[in-house]
Structures
1.
Amino acid sequence: METTVQQSITLERMVHLFESNRQVLASNDTALLSEIRDKAFILFGKLGFPDTKMEAWRHTDLKDSLERGYDYYLHPLPEEDVQKVFRCNIPHLDTAIIGQLNGWYVSKEVPLMELGNGIIMGSLAEAKKKYPALVDKYYSRATGDTAEVFTAMNTAFAQDGIFIYVPAGVKSTKPVQLINVIHHYENLFLQSRNLIVIGDNASLSLVHCDDSYNQQASFSNIVTEIFLGENAFLDHYKLQNLNNNSTLISTVYFQLEAAANLESHYLSLNGGLLRNNIRVLFNGTHGNADIYGLYLMDRRQHIDNHVFVDHASPDCTSNEIFKGILDENAHGVFNGHVLVRRNSTGTDARQTNKNILLTDTARVNSKPFLEIYNDDVKCSHGSTTGQLDSEALFYLRQRGIGEESARMLLMFAFANEIVGKIAIPQLRQRIEDMVKKRLQGELQICEQCVLHCSTPEQPVEFKIDMSKI
Amino acid sequence: MESDSNKIIGEFTQGDYKYGFVTDIDTEFAPRGLTEDTIRFISAKKQEPEFLLEFRLKAFRHWLTMTQPKWAHLHIDPINFQDIIYYAAPKKKHQLENLDQVDPDLLATFNKLGISLEEQKKLSGVAVDAVIDSVSVKTTFTETLSKYGIIFCSFSEAVLKHPNLVKQYMGSVVPYTDNFFASLNSAVFSDGSFCYIPKGVRCPVELSTYFRINAANTGQFERTLIVAEEGSYVSYMEGCTAPQRDENQLHAAIVEIVAMKDAEVKYSTVQNWYPGDKNGKGGIYNFVTKRGICKGSNAKISWTQVETGSAITWKYPSCILLGDNSVGEFYSVAVTNNHQQADTGTKMQHLGKNTRSTIISKGISAGKGNNSYRGLVRITKNAVNSRNYSQCDSLLLGSQCGAHTFPYIQVENKSSIVEHEATTSKISEDQLFYCQQRGIDMESAIGLIVNGYAKEVLKQLPMEFAVEAQKLLSISLEGSVG
């Protein structure tokens, strides 16, 4: 049986699925990967699915999401219009695009591209066959023995995903855009696995989008491992635009060697239930990680950002800024955890979470958590929750700006601290527009897509009557 | 400077607990272990009314269904709850009427601690309800207070003399089902203090109680209940020192505060139980449930604590802000040294409109100590226009210690503002250099900086306590810098 149809996600279903399809799942595995898969399956069975009694899932209840019925496929689905996947690109931005449809790599030309400068991009399943040594070296090294059920489940079941390898010393000039699109006419449960390796002194700019094409419910469990070699640089963008029936559990493991530099941006604009597990490990000294997050949620949307920064090496710096605007019945959760280990002297860690609640039915749970075992550190965290500053609002209105516009301006200014950090100008412009649209409530679902991606770009402006000023 | 500071740390960590001595008083023990019989024994011993025995038994039966919580950031050796003596009372020779009749050994103990009943009675105007082990030995100023209608007596006495008040309020803030240690306390509590301030009365003196664990292997389970009627005011102080012991001693207390409309209760604690020796051997296990409720509008409850003792501190003085416009405050300084562990903080539950809370927590970790702040600020949907400000700072002295912050923030309406900030760092070398440059030696400089760091909290303490607290801080931390 290669497919199970419209069943809820339970331990029994998954155990049965694994046991009866072990061969199919592991068909591209090397001996080592096969072993890792079996181990992960045992761990998955031990852990089981989380409930809200567990500290890490206290404020995120997966019950409804798991209980829905989903199809699960062990092979890629035929897609009549592959180009659809690639429609979601950013205008005027010259990128190398790699697409994923329902978790499977979509080949435009070949399953694995080898560029002139040594960069390899493409399907992970293919990479397992073609570069077994390379995959063996990194696969599951960052996830390690993490006792996290969704990582274990992913390791046990993942068949395909994206593989990117940037050799030492290579500076990728073009940003790589990784588009993961969910498009199916039934509810879909998918798991994909990405492996990204950036060699010593290499650099990469990666835009990673999660999109859905229709209103069909989905459950995605995506694990990404990203390795940054010594002195490597990664400019990482995660754009999440899923429909309101989708559940996304995205777990990204960043492992930074000495003097590696990570800039990560999490921009969550839409989605039913989004859970971002972000784990950063400093594996060498003098590493730096900046993690920025922006979430704009409304209706009954739920966003949960779980950030764990492990200062396992001395002299590293980390900076987290997460900001959110929550409207209607939205629920925002921030859970930051900074661990400074015994020997990690010279650590500098910062954590900030700011929320604006627009209604009395929106909720926020914030837990900026510091765990410090060393005295030679500078650590701080801050968390605020409130509403728009009434004085600032008054100031703007006094100058003839209507209340609605003034509120928009202030919200946009609030969001702009994060948007402004985007280093790629075209992307920044695009996100600015999207944030503006989102704040004006215009980011409605068109027939094809959540995002108006294919519609021609029109600059978005706030409607301020200049003549009154 | 490195070797200097090492030397100072060495000297300090090897310093002995100043208050370690045992007073030899005849004690009457309950049989070791905990069964319904133990509870009946305690209840009978104290000639308690039926309702209290029932309460204890209900709590005990509930406790049996519970397990010891493991969520705190603490390493606790397993506690054998059957290997504890749950009741010990100094044998009463005869009814006491004045200080002269108090056991001279006891008086000497207090004098060694610097708490002279006579002096306090005569000079400082503080009424003292001194508890040694479990039974209240001497209550002073009761007469003066009774003039105002204030009831300030031991819990056992209140049970006998004011059963209706006790029945009405006991367990109303901390129910017997609340948590593992609260259930245990509800089952076996030995004694404690009871305080009732009638409507519109401003208590003219600071009420104070000294607790002291005395007999070896005796868990102490006090229970304090403070009821402040409409428009009243009381400032209550609690302080503890305990003698040196090799075996861990268990201490599970409950403090309940009820503040009616316009009432204000200020509760201050200096906790200096025996922290264990420098190898982490011995020391008090301190599991305390403290909670106050602002029942009426404009009520105010303020907790101030200076925690320097205990091997393990597990304590979260909390406020339920039920009345509109009510105010909750929490000021804390917690020091951990050697192998001490503290997991302490507060919960502010905003239920009423326009409620306000302030949290200032200052943690200081030295040696191999681990200090955690754990707090919850919850603004419910109906608590519109509420305000919270939290600040929890940690100071680390030495590379072997740990400082952790677990703030939980939950906001459910749009008109409230919650702010939380925290920093963690070691003593600023610039500040140390500045002081030393001006001829202030290392040790004094650290004392100075630490006291400055904790000043925001210390200034909240009543005068009588502030001196002791500052002294404690200096003793605890002189010279320990990494």
2.
Amino acid sequence: MEEDEDDKLEKKLLLMGRSGSGKSSMRSMIFSNYSAFDTRRLGATIDVEHSHLRFLGNMTLNLWDCGGQDVFMDNYFTNQKDHIFKMVQVLIHVFDVESKSINKDIEIFIKALTNLQKYSPGAKIFVLLHKMDLVQIDKREELFTIMMDKLQKISNPYQFKLIGFPTSIWDESLYKAWSQIVCSLIPNMNLLNNNLLKLNQILDSEEIILFEKSTFLVISSTASIQQQNLDSLESTHITPNEELDPKRFAKISSIIKTYKQSITKLRSNFTNLIIRGSKGAHFYIDVLTDNMFIMIVLRDNTGKEGNDSSNQPQHEELLILNNIKSARKWFEKIENSGGV
Amino acid sequence: MKKSKCNMKKTLACVQECKKLVVLSYEHKENKLTVSIKLPSHYTVQDIDTQTMEATLLPNPKDTNATILLMGLRRGGKSSICKVVFHNMQPLDTLYLESTSKPTTEQFSSLIDLSVMELPGQLNYFEPNYDSERLFSSIGALVYVIDSQDEYLNALTNLSMIIEFAYKVNPKINIEVLIHKIDGLSEDYRMDAQRDIMQRTGDELLDLGLEGVQVSFYLTSIFDHSIYEAFSRIVQKLIPELPSLENMLDNLVQHSSIDKVFLFDVNSKIYVATDSSPVDIQTYEVCAEFIDITIDLDDLYVENDDDDDNNTKQPRELRSVSHLSQGSILYLKQMIRGLALVALIKNEDARSLPGNNDNDFDQKLQSNSAVQDKSLTIIDYNINLFKKALMRMWEHSRFVPVESNNN
């Protein structure tokens, strides 16, 4: 009972890993709009830095960024262990792939697992193999599988199932990893997905993507839902647009974040963005709920000669915006029913 | 077709350098070689400098291109400016640029065709065998770059010498001085440096008896938008249609409740025209970045189907609208010749409405958005008209190049 209540109100995320592995850098990039370049300015984290983040209305993420120097680490595993490891929903353990003392890294990982099993056995564990950009491109995948196999073997005795991501702050992999971490915390994901598919059917769009408002992490998208269905059903449905850039979600996130930053010069924020593209794709980015942005991509399949009627696009725009407005109610309902 | 004399090796080097040249004939007499080469119509070959083995291509005075000449002492930042403004290089990457050793020319096509020519600082322009006269008579703007972080007295002497010469050859030349690399100076010191440089240049020119020469000064840095701003103004002076363009934009602003409008060159983010209200650098930055964001998003969803050829042949007009939370609207529309019109539309009503309670406010917001939608339609219509006007204006202003004769 007690755990249920906590489940809907607050989520405790532990961010752990050795000193210098890049924990604070990734936190600043995802939650504080730092660019990869800006993270150079960050110093070492002393003890634990807490950040609180409202996420999707009634959910609060408490991110504990645990400084990785040995002094603090020893402290976490001895004096503070019940304080740190109690009621953890998610452990995000960061490994530096270029680390020189892997044994030490693993030792700490084992200690964290031991404590976690004792204090919050239900926690999900994500492993980020970070600074992947330093590894040669053709060796990345191999290294990743070897490392993950090894780590999974280590954690088997503790009954934890690891989910791993190769990441780097210099490309989109970081956004992807964090998107999935955060999505794993959303309780009514299926309902959200179903509604999204329905909306997609009504609008007959190329793609719909949902973003979280403050971080612009991808919450859901029609392409990924279709992909999931495909994986689970093994059916021969329509293959989702494979020719599109697979990294596009993260790119959109970063483009929109740049835009948000740019707009602050006018002391403002944006409510929507409508682009009639030069290549036949039209974009609608609009507020969906208090915590979500929606992006709809439409492809202009209708007559290529129908361009001159300048009135028509205006109507279409209003129609789409109205559709988004109507969809707003449904998504708000899902959001408010959130933790129940 | 022009003739130039030089020896064999140099000719080959010269021809290799500019692959566009077509060798028509050559004859070998007394260790001298006469080569006839066909040049792109707007070039002539200057006699090749025998000491440095360098051939220089100079734009023909009859050329339709407006030419900007970049000069300044070495390591002043000329190449970096070129790369950042016209090639979208990241400012930090300019650290790795090599020193320029030869004069270089680059062509850009915007509203007007533009040539940017860069002369390395270590070259002595006043050597007798260097045809400075032709050089200066053919250019529209002389841009002199001064490194403000360095000792600039030498540069100022050099500058006034060049101004004296250039003004004599071509009194119509625009002289622009960039006080460059100001990012390294503190806020207070910038103004001091500018005042000092202006004062000294004025004195030097006075000594040379050149009182009436107009010299414009700009504080610039490649790490912010000041360099774009400076180049915008420099380029604008070279556009003969500028007054009518500004007039058209003023008209547009008046009738469409637009706060500020820019006509941007999409590639370089230079604005070739704006309405006559003063430019606020932040509005400029937001508008320039809005272009980037629109284009980046547009490029993401490109289908690489080959059978869709007829689709790619006729790219549609790019248009992007963004409503901001304080009621204003950012508006972008693609124009002709790589230009885009970006406007900031202010909604005065939105701010003057006091919302007593939530419900009331909501209603007003709704009626407001309806008003906005209507006004957007009008703005759309007006901007379409502007585009048509721009197209017609361009048709008429296009300069028909005179057929070059083999005199």
